[in-house]
Design a protein that fits this description.
By secondary structure, the protein is an all-alpha fold. It has helices at about 5-15, 25-50, 55-65. Helix content is about 65%, strand content about 0%. The longest helix has 27 residues, at about 25-50.
Length: about 80
């Protein structure tokens, strides 16, 4: 049986972004999250279609995530 743990971890990483600090940061956050959700969906569809290629799909997702890192100011970075 295929180990789907790396797949689940990669999807969790894709969907886990820090909260944005401001409304302007929220716009950028949402754009990045939309890209990451799209790539996570591609990963999940690929894994369901080809369960033996999970490792490749996880690598693909991690490469796409590296292209869309959180570049906005996170709420926990702003001193209150």
């Amino acid at each position: 049986m295929t180990d789907f743990r790396p797949l689940v971890e990669a999807v969790l990483e894709a969907l886990s972004l820090p909260a944005p600090a401001t409304v302007g940061d929220r716009i950028e956050h949402d754009q990045i999250l939309n890209h990451r959700v799209m790539y996570a969906r591609i990963l999940l569809k690929s894994a369901l279609k080809n369960p033996n290629d999970v490792e490749w799909a996880v690598d693909y997702l991690r490469e796409r995530l590296a292209e869309h890192p959180p570049t906005y100011r996170a709420a926990d970075e702003v001193k209150q």
